[in-house]
Design a protein that fits this description.
Blueprint lengths: L1 E7 L4 H14 L2 E5 L9 H6 L9 E4 L2 H7 L4 E5 L5 E2 L11 E6 L8 H4 L6 E3 L11 H15 L7
Parallel strand pairs: 1-2, 1-6, 2-3, 4-6, 4-7, 5-7
Helix pairs in contact: 1-5
């Protein structure tokens, strides 16, 4: 069981640091798919993640396929602005499931070939057409807090 945020080739250390902080606050595992656009030793990443980067459950992978092989029973959801269904339309209330939410890099998103055949697991976030997308760390927080809300905020004070 568990909640997982997956960053596919993230480029901006501050976004990853902010997402790491959200993961720590919500008992969520952070998965980083390489290559990264920064070093995890980078000062900006540590500052964005504050002083508890070492406390975050972070896992590194050389490819997305390595993640899929490691968690063959995971339920994978791709967060993209061209998703066909809003994230609020899914039932994430069962805490026994392994839920993985995959976010693409800031400049390129998720490669379309990763999503082919999985369009029913492409989720989008409500927003006006005044912007192309939301900030990556804001999007991750929106998704994980909806999951937590549906699960009645387990182990949260």
């Amino acid at each position: 069981m568990g909640r997982h945020i997956v960053l596919y080739e993230p480029e901006i250390p501050a976004n990853t640091g902010n997402i790491a902080r959200t993961c720590l606050a919500t008992h969520t595992t952070l998965h980083l798919i390489h290559p990264l656009g920064f070093s995890t030793d980078d000062k900006m990443l540590r500052r964005a993640g504050l002083d508890y980067w070492e406390d975050v459950d972070v896992k590194h992978y050389d490819s997305i396929n390595q993640l899929f092989t490691t968690y063959p029973k995971g339920e994978y959801y791709f967060i993209e602005n061209f998703g066909t269904t809003y994230y609020t339309e899914f039932d994430f209330s069962n805490q026994e499931r392994q839920l993985f939410f995959i976010f693409g890099s800031e400049s390129k998103g998720i490669p379309k070939e990763l999503i082919e055949g999985k369009e029913d697991h492409c989720l989008k976030i409500h927003m006006s057409d005044n912007v192309r997308s939301l900030n990556l760390s804001n999007s991750a927080a929106i998704i994980i807090y909806e999951v937590l809300r549906q699960q009645n905020f387990p182990n949260m004070f």
